[in-house]
Please model this.
Amino acid sequence: MSRDQRIFDLIQRMRDGKLHTAAELAQAVGVSTRTIWRDMAMMAATGIPVEGERGLGYILRSPLVLPPLMLTTEELAALMDGLARVGSGGTPHAKAARALRFKITTLLPQAGFIPDPEDLG
Model:
């Protein structure tokens, strides 16, 4: 399982608003608790509203929703392709493009769109 897929799965599990221990999450996605600790730190650093700490557990504090925006499948593909290209380069915007692409991919199911990972590059 890729890191992106694991993060996506973690967010989906945490959308229930309940406190989840690192051990519970680690077992669910098949990684170590240390990996969960790193994933939670990365998620918090990119603006995902996850709170918690080692030994207590983690919770997703606010719902993740997209603002009203209507994109066609082709527009979404173009957006994701553009973000992937900018994110893979050495430009000043590369880190922001990767973070934005991650956020969009994470929120697509809430918008009623279940992405095929092959379509999103």
